[in-house]
Design a protein that fits this description.
about 150 residues, mainly alpha, globular, Pentatricopeptide repeat-containing protein, PPR_At4g14850-like_plant, TPR-like_helical_dom_sf
């Protein structure tokens, strides 16, 4: 009834999405995603982040970036969670160039000083290490790298 549109309760739809999106069963996750996009829960950043997280932790991390792009196109506010899930997807698949684009976007959107996101970038650049992106890692201040290292130890 939710898929056909007979039930139009936003709270029920939200509860359903949140219940199924964290399931270990892929068909339930797919169902939650389809309900999300069918009912256009577009103004709730928390639900968007749940969908992005399901992709970044799932079998198709690149799809997390597509969802994030759709989030931007629909003028939904990104937050530090949106970026952290997207950076995790980049790290998982080795998308350094996309990670570098997120690095620039972080600074444009005033998230550049966020230590947690800087940690995500460090992990991306270390796990996908090449000579090209070692210079980018140098753009993250020495103090932040030291703090990140001490917090993980």
């Amino acid at each position: 009834m939710i898929i056909t549109g007979f039930i139009r309760s936003p709270s029920l739809t939200t509860s359903l999405i949140l219940s199924f999106i964290s399931s270990p069963h892929e068909p339930l996750i797919d169902f939650a995603r389809s309900v999300f996009f069918k009912h256009h829960a577009f103004h709730n950043p928390f639900l968007w982040n749940a969908i992005i997280r399901s992709h970044s932790h799932g079998f198709h991390p690149k799809r997390a970036l597509l969802v994030l792009r759709s989030m931007l196109e629909n003028a939904v506010c990104l937050d530090e969670y949106s970026f952290s899930f997207a950076l995790k997807a980049c790290t998982k698949v080795g998308l350094v160039r996309e990670g570098m684009q997120f690095h620039g976007l972080l600074w444009k959107m005033d998230f550049g000083e966020d230590v947690f996101l800087q940690n995500c970038l460090i992990v991306l650049f270390i796990r996908c290490s090449t000579e090209e992106n070692e210079e980018v890692g140098d753009g993250i201040g020495h103090q932040q790298r030291r703090v990140a290292w001490e917090e993980e130890s």
